[in-house]
Amino acid sequence: MSGADQYVLAVYIESQRNGAPVSSGAVADRLDKSPPSVTEMLQRLDDRGLVGYEPYEGATLTDAGRDRATDLHESYVTLSWFFRSVLDLETHESEAMELAGVFDPSVADRLTTVLAVEELEKEDGI
User: Fold this and answer.
1) In the prediction, which pLDDT does 2 show?
2) What's residue 13's pLDDT?
């Protein structure tokens, strides 16, 4: 995933969990980055029209940023599910965050279908 995608996804997740605007510190914690590097990237994303960023207040996704984040989030959820339930990774969220933007949405959709079938088979004892 591009660095920008990680930040857009992090702002989206944090805003869903805690509301907007999202502080630089919350993004830094989620991505394990330094606050100054987060601030710099949020300013760049503001310049690109993906977030609205106000120093000392935080970032809010623009319509374009929200559209991108929604697509990324679908892949993130699917990958996190796979890493947790199939591979039993403790780091499933951070791994999913790294890879969400790399997957074509059609691949993520197919993976979701496979995981759903696997869950149903487990429930039915097959």
Assistant:
1) 63
2) 95
pLDDT score for 26: 95
Residues 29, 31, 32, 35: what is their CA dihedral angle, to the nearest 10 degrees? -60
How far apart CA 87 and CA 104 sit, in angstroms, is 21
Task: Among 3.40.50.720, 1.10.10.10, 3.40.50.740, 3.40.50.300, name the CATH number for the domain at 3-66.
Answer: 1.10.10.10
Look up residue 86 and give its amino acid.
Answer: V
Furthest-apart CA pair in the chain: how many Å? 54
Given a contact cutoff of 8 angstroms between Cβ atoms, the answer to whether 8 and 45 are in contact is yes
For residue 22, which phi and psi values (nearest 5 degrees)? -100, 130
Phi, psi of 60 (to 5 degrees): -130, 135
In one-letter notation, the amino acid at residue 75 is S
Instruction: Report pLDDT for 126.
Output: 54
> Around 64, how many Cα atoms within 13 Å sit in the side-chain half-sphere?
9
Strands (E), 15-77: 51-54, 58-61
